[in-house]
Amino acid sequence: MTSLHNYLLISSLAFLSWQGLTYPLNKDLTSEKVTKAFFQILGLSSLVFGAFVGLSIYNGETLLFGLVKLIFTPMKGWIFFTSSILYAIVAHFSCNYLHKDSGFSKFFLNYNVFWLGIFFFIFGNDILVTFAGWELIGVSSIFLIGYYTYRPAPVFNSLYITNFYKLGDIILITSLLLFEHNDILVNHHSYIPFLYIGLITAGLIKSGSFPFTPWLPKAMEGPTTSSAIFYGALSVNTGVLLITFYLDEILKVSAAQTYLLVAGILTILYSSFQSRVQNNAKALLAYSSSMQIGFVLIELALGFKYFALFHLYANSFYKVYQFIKSPSMLHSFHEMVGENQSPFKINGVHFQKLLPKKLRQYLYFLDLHHFHLNSFYESLGTMSYKLSHFAEKIFFPFINREKRPSLWSMMWVVYYIGLTYFINNEAIEVHKEYFDIIPFFIMLVSLSMIHQKNTSSFIALMMIYKILESFILHGVHSHEPLKIVGNLVLLTFVFFMIIQGRKGRFMKLKKSTLGPLLIFMMLYFTNFPFLMQSLVNDHIIEAFLQQDMLMDLGFYCLANTFFNIGLYQFIFNKVYLQEIEKEPAHA
Amino acid sequence: MRLVEEVGFKKSPIDENYYREALTWAEKYLLRQGPLEYFVHHNTLHSFETKPFLDALFEAKDLYQAKTHMSLNWYAQQFKEKRITQKDLQYAISKNFDKDFEFSNIFNWNGNLDRLSNVDKEQFLKSFEKDIRKDSQKHEKEFYQVETYWGHSKSKFRSSKIKRNLENLRLKFLSAFFDKGTSYWEMEDKELGLNHCFALFLGQLPKTSFTKFILKSYEVLRAQEGNIFHSLEIFKDTLEVPEEHFKTYLFQIFNQTKGWTGLVLSLNENENFNPTKINADKNEYFLLCLTFELAGYLYLKKNNELNDFLYTASVSNDHLSDILSFLYDDFFKIGKRNEDIQILFRRKKAQLQQLTYKKIIKVWQEAYEAHLYFQLINTHSQTPKIDKVKPIIQVITCIDDREESTRRHFEEYSSEIETYGYAGHFGLNIKYRSLRDAHFRALCPVNANPDKYVYEELLPGEKVDFKVLAKIKHFLFHNSNLPFLGSFLSLLIGPFTGMLFLFESINPKGVHRLRKRLKKNMYPPVRTRLNYLNEGRKELKGFSNEELATAGFNLISVTGINKNFTQIVYLCGHGSKSMNNPHEAAYNCGACAGGKGAPNARLMATALNDPEVRLLIGEKGISIPKETIFVGGYHCTSTGKLLIFDQETLSNEQTRRLRNACDYVEKHESKERMRKFENVPLTVSVEEAFLAAQNRSYDFSQPRPEYGHNTNAFCLVGKRATSENLFLDRRAFLVSYDEENDKQGDNLLSLLSAVIPVCAGISLEYYFSFVDQQKFGAGVKQAHNVTSLMGVMNGYQSDLQMGLPWQMVEIHEPARITFLIEAEPEKFERVMAMNQEVKNLVDNEWVLLILKTAKGDYLLYGKGEVRPLSIEQISKIPRFAKSEDIYTGKRKILDLAIKGER
């Protein structure tokens, strides 16, 4: 295991890079020119690098900064090369397209982070690095969806997508950890299909395949260029690439292979039906891009790896171009109709006409209502809110309806600092029954966090969550993770003070400082890679695996998702929702 | 009927008139906007034109909950940057307040709400404020927002979620219904009407506890056999809306999706916008909106989520206490004692009563505009007269402000060129279909009635058919989104699109040329002519020679080109070409209803060359010499190119001469235009600027192909002689008007009836889109998503966006347009008396109008009175010999300048 200071170093670097997210740097032309030059250089060097790796000039494994494990193979090199072409063109395009936009630097910071994610994800040779790439891609796309913070729809939609992404993240990290622990798999052969199905599911979520398609069209909120590169190409490709990297193993397990095949077929069916009835340019292209991914999934399931990759990237080029050109749709349609000298009769030339009219209409409107898939997810959301209100009642002493900070949160801090510094450096015996109950409680706590808007009760609940989490850690590990958790708690305390500072109780902070701080906290406490929480997660999942309790691991995963969702919602609420419908920066 | 009883509806005879009135009221104030391909500039607050401008702004502010004027902070900023000078401010204050006005320090206020803490002050102001309010007249407000049940639910979070869901359903259905061909699988039975399809749509809603209520409210409202008034009554009774608030509430419901409402209303009102005959009755649309509103209420009520509530009118902040507090603090700061201030306040109570927030904004806005129009008349009055040589080419362009620099450069190229401005449809109200059009398109002002059909046809022996190309494009358009063909296509052409994308973003003009050359090889250019005569037509009416002669006579007599007819008369229509731009039509010719004005120019030239038409014009009193040849042309305002049509009518020598002039103008006009774009260096040469202009237009990464009517501020009506030596910085519409040809004032009447509303529409649309880019404008271009081929929305799902996008208006100066008309007052007053629309606009100050009499007096019209303006002899007016002297090296808006040596 790597030493702690590496993590600290990287987390502070991450913090610095995130600082620019909520407010633009200077907007003058020189900064635009510098950005343009920077991206031209970065794009070109990525191209050259990809080609070198592809041609086996760079080969083998490396260790970056004594921390980041990378592996270079020709296939990965060519994948990176192709992605770089898209990246470079879209960067060049965006410099013009976002000229004079108030979020110019915000866009390019996210784009930058995204590119780092792509690099780590493709070349990662370690769970942590692969996952880091995965998460960087996810987070940057979430921030670009919520690019226009002064309107509610982008912010709500980026939260909606966060829910899917977070579910995917926890499934992915669990599967990857299971992959690492060969010793467990040797004893339990029955886990193997679940492992691969988990991997594939994570890929399906990221690539917007069935049944997770509903998030994809909702991601069309950012500037057109970000929609193009993320949801026409590279971000949705990530899911497929994940499956591709583990394809040889997946094909050995027939259950996983079948699952992949079925998912592909269903994706094609669902998305093709959806894309037929869409009436706005971007949603149409989103479904059409998801449909092509369905084909790629089938090709993968049948074992045509290289053909699938070719299909994936050929389609990426095509979709990016179509996305970029989507504002021309009005113009080109009229030109087309004009050249035909009469409007096209669209209806009646395709197979729908074979169906009787009643059935056809029934299908059409069902299709328009997304075959009720969206409302299924909505009802899940409603249910979780109801459950959240129910779960809240269990933790009533910690729930605070007033604005005053509750003493509870402070008491936990005092308790926990004591625990961290005075306890022996040995693992505590924890009974197995105890292990059974904790995940369930954790789930209840995290559930009750979902709808919490009051700062101090949110903090109090979060503390309980952290402490229950650490109980699991006590059962397996000695002092080191404990100290980490202790630090976590101290940071929570700081976090708490900062939020309180907004009311002028402890200290005053400017909004421009507060936004990035809160966002950093959000990333810190969720399983953002290289930050401590992800380490804690690793240990806990390991603990469950070693104790051989898959069921409870499931509970914990669910709890973790709820926790993440709750935290993201809370912070979005604090940072963005208050900005909505205020003056946009450039007016 | 069971459901009807369930919501507590008693059937009784109703007062239909009441509901009709309420609905008409709501309809009147809803905003309008047609499909984007027919984008026509119009006054956003058209329905308020019967009220004075400033009153209308504040009433509209309450009604639309939008910004209708700039903030005090913004005005303070302009003051700092000298866009408003102390003199302008003094002028505006003296115009609005008495002579002994003592509180002019209020104009130091930049809207900041900080107060000095002062116990004496707070105590005094508390009672004083009450005093003032008591005395000021109370009147019932007509415009406000009603607080409805949405604001009174127990959980704001849940109710806002429900509201969002309802709105999304509404948007989803509407965009599917109005779709003109985006989706592969179209909604069927659209011709049976909106209501029919809506019922089918509701039939497939997922069955949840929530959607049940939508069905229920739909059944209740529809049970009235299509009588909207009965449905309105049920709605009103169920929600227990008080009578006085009902019409406002109705307005609010429809205004929720104001973009779609605007579309439905304009499709209903203007059939030119609806060539595909979409059957969308506005009453059925209203019913749809009511259904969702009722459903929300029923749901919340049933789930016991509503608190008890009353409908209340929202009160807008009149800023009285802020104003008083600022004044008090300001006096205190300069060292006055508490008692003195209080005495002053009491003594001048009447003045403080008049000092409302509205008045402050009014003064600022007037000062801002006064700066512009004083600059205009001061410069205009000092214009030197330069002797003219006999012209050899006459150029007639559109009155558009973008043509100002085109005309100036024509004159700079050679003093032998004379230019004129005439509305870009050249007086021809036509519906036109080119070889590449499916439908006839109206090319005339919106309020005119296009009843003449003109179409382009091939000359005998020529042959061209684009159908194969169209079929291929259609194949690619739809099939790339289908499963098997789509994957086949992406495998086949995917990698190549990547290359195309790369080349296109590096060299847009090169790729455009390549495309054009390919097209040329496929379809070699053909020679065409216009078919416009009535003879031999059965159905679609064309022109008779008599009608053409009338239009031609009007053109000649209004502009006065008959004074010295030249050999070549170049008639130049205009339009704009840009890539990746849904708002492309908004850059086109306003007089051609958002179309390109080329056919009108070509038709007019063809007609005026016709000997029979000339004969008829001769009978009316103007004889056109034989050697005079009219030639049509087209100016693309984004690429800057000037085209000449039907060149065979000219001799080679004449063509060369005209072409040389055009070449000069293309380049120099482009350079002047390019200075405003920040990513074009200021040091470019004319050739580079021309290339940059073309690259902008063909570049699909460019959200600003041109700046359109940005910074428009003036409209000059009169002879070119008085304005040709002015540098107007592309800010002025220039209308040629020859008073000598117009003894009766009929020409002035017909001219102003068209020019004033059109220019006011353009200017005010820019004003409102600039002032509130979210509510009246269309937001930023980067988030736009083309919907149903009708309009754009923001992101995944939102309302249709109205108005102009931010990239189109960002350098505008939000001022009303100033008309400077050279005519005698009697003639102008006759126009006012004859045309109510013009009278409304002028009297209510939606436009500012200055009349220049023959004696050289400048008279400002407005509020039904006339105010002479005093001219100041300014010595500092910049001078120029060539336009380049003035604009080179500058980005910002320039002061007006005069030609000649200092």
Short précis:
Helices cover 74% and strands 2% of the residues of chain A.
3D architecture notes:
The complex is a heterodimer of chains A (587) and B (902). Chain A is mainly α and 587 residues long. Chain A is 74% helix and 2% strand. Chain A is built from 24 helices and two strands. Chain A has a two-stranded antiparallel ribbon. In chain A, helix 5 runs antiparallel to helix 10, helix 10 runs parallel beside helix 13 and helix 10 packs antiparallel against helix 14. Chain A is globular, with a radius of gyration of 24 Å. In chain B, 46% of the residues lie in helices and 11% in strands. Chain B has 31 helices and 22 strands. Chain B is globular, with a radius of gyration of 30 Å.
Sum up the structure in keywords:
heterodimer, A: 587 residues, mainly alpha, two-stranded antiparallel ribbon, 24 helices, 2 strands, 74% helix, 2% strand, B: 902 residues, alpha/beta, 6-stranded mixed β-sheet, 5-stranded mixed β-sheet, 31 helices, 22 strands, 46% helix
Describe the SSE topology.
The complex is a heterodimer of chains A (587) and B (902).
Chain A: H1 4-19, H2 29-54, E1 60-64, E2 68-72, H3 74-97, H4 104-123, H5 127-145, H6 152-180, H7 182-187, H8 191-206, H9 215-218, H10 224-245, H11 247-250, H12 254-277, H13 281-301, H14 305-324, H15 329-340, H16 357-368, H17 373-394, H18 407-422, H19 432-449, H20 455-476, H21 479-501, H22 511-525, H23 532-547, H24 550-577
Antiparallel strand pairs in A: 1-2
Chain B: H1 2-6, H2 16-29, H3 53-64, H4 72-80, H5 86-96, H6 119-135, E1 146-147, H7 156-177, H8 194-203, H9 211-222, H10 228-239, H11 243-255, H12 258-269, H13 282-302, E2 312-313, H14 320-333, H15 338-347, H16 349-354, H17 357-381, E3 393-397, H18 403-413, E4 417-421, E5 430-433, E6 441-443, E7 452-458, H19 467-479, H20 483-506, H21 508-522, E8 528-531, H22 545-559, E9 568-575, H23 598-609, H24 611-620, E10 629-636, E11 642-644, H25 652-674, H26 686-698, E12 714-718, E13 726-727, E14 732-736, H27 746-771, E15 784-787, E16 791-794, H28 806-809, E17 818-822, H29 825-834, H30 836-843, E18 848-852, E19 858-862, E20 865-869, E21 879-880, H31 883-887, E22 897-899
Parallel strand pairs in B: 3-4, 3-9, 5-7, 9-10, 12-14, 12-17, 17-18, 21-22
Antiparallel strand pairs in B: 1-2, 5-6, 7-8, 10-11, 13-22, 15-16, 18-19, 19-20
Helix pairs in contact in B: 2-11, 5-17, 6-14, 7-13, 9-13, 10-13, 18-25, 20-21, 22-24, 25-26, 27-29, 29-30
